[in-house]
Amino acid sequence: MSPLRSNNNNNNNNNGIGIRISWDSLSGHHYADVGGEQLWADVLRATLERGLAPVSWTDYLYLTVGGTLSNAGISGQSFLHGPQINNVLELDVVTGKGDFVTCSPHMNSELFFAVLGGLGQFGIITRARIPLQKAPTRAKWVRLMYTDFSQFTGDQELLMSKTPDYLEGSLITHHSPPNNWRSNSFYSPSHYPKITSLLESNNGILYSIEVVKYYDHFTAAETIDNEVEYLLRDLKVVPGFIFEKDVTLTDFLGRVEIREDDDEGGSAEAHPWLNIFIPKSRIQDFNAGVFVDIIGRQNKAISGPILFYPFIRKKWDDRMSAVTPDEDIFYTLGLLHTSGAHDWEYFDKVNNAIVGFCEKWGIKIKQYLPHYKSEQDWMKHYGPKWKTFVERKNKFDPRRILSPGQRIFITSDQHEVITNSDV
Ligand SMILES: Cc1cc2nc3c(=O)[nH]c(=O)nc-3n(C[C@H](O)[C@H](O)[C@H](O)COP(=O)(O)OP(=O)(O)OC[C@H]3O[C@@H](n4cnc5c(N)ncnc54)[C@H](O)[C@@H]3O)c2cc1C
């Protein structure tokens, strides 16, 4: 694994906020004031220098703070701490009216909640205040394999109750192998024959849990071993299919490396991804219709990671613009396809088949990083929040100048410009 790439030489420049770490004597906590343009990789590097770190991350760190806070910012820490949008103390925002506003849950709170998960519709985030905690230094990183979907999701939910520091899950298929760009080289070549033979014997689909427990120099070896042993107790993993690594926190959080010259991440590639949230009550139907039928039986070649893991709804503040299914537990599917620049339509069709299956069988999914073309679809996406979304738009960006590329509120002139620039 490579160390974090340095992308930014001006973390603390004089032209912007940069990344500034402070101590709040009232709450007794540290926080970082971070420019909206800063990359999370740089936030990690700067905070670790002080032995501190944010608690909620994305899998990939070369994304901007303003960009992920405009969506949600999800990863394996979200079940415990909520998404990144739930871990913000204060924001500076330039609204569509040109007002510069500092906002928080207690000050100008309507703008604060509008902007978080607001797809850039209400203002430009120029500063975010992120709470920090003492950083662990190492991670026990474990992967577990399952042939049975119910046991896989049952164990994910059991693990949530045991509060590890990170919990995700994924599918392994012939086209989505155990090692991929999301976490290269976790498995050694010697693991492959064993995994492949399990895959063959299970109709080409395996389910895998990824779970992590952090620790630091002060933790006795016996203590962390006992903690991992407790996490793994009573799980229904296929015997002999537990794989473990012990890495630095930086190696773990920086595990997703995509370089422009990578085969799978290069600029000549297209990434027609589908990210959706699925209510827990329908995940069995989803498995049968999507994983077993569309991806498995129809042998659709989904190249790229297929993520599937749970969240707890109460960790998402419903006053924010982001939307989730209306159930206490919901799962996320991340179909992170990589296609050539010219064959993305095939993957688009697979994505549409999955969304169509959910519509047909009444599975009330919500898209994450949504793409819709009609106002009706956006209204359906936001559901009961649509009215508030429109009121906030009228209040903070009445001329609809912000982020027209999301195609939520576009005038016919803008539509023409966007459509032409799409070609
Ligand atoms: C390789 C890769 C891996 C990813 N992994 C994850 C992941 O693990 N978890 C996850 O949650 N997401 C993930 N994403 C999605 C990511 O959260 C969104 O694409 C996000 O918009 C990326 O931020 P950006 O800096 O690239 O934003 P940009 O592409 O620059 O902007 C996207 C949109 O965000 C809004 N925006 C951007 N900056 C601001 C700002 N300062 N103020 C207001 N609005 C703004 C605008 O609407 C803009 O159109 C991933 C994306 C990629 C490309």
UniProtKB/TrEMBL annotation:
It comes from the Eukaryota. One of its GO terms (molecular function) is cytokinin dehydrogenase activity. Its cofactor is FAD. Its EC number is 1.5.99.12. GO terms for biological process: cytokinin metabolic process. Keywords: FAD, Flavoprotein, Oxidoreductase. Residues 1-135 form the FAD-binding PCMH-type domain. It catalyses: N(6)-dimethylallyladenine + A + H2O = 3-methyl-2-butenal + adenine + AH2. Belongs to the oxygen-dependent FAD-linked oxidoreductase family. This is cytokinin dehydrogenase. It comes from Hygrophila difformis.
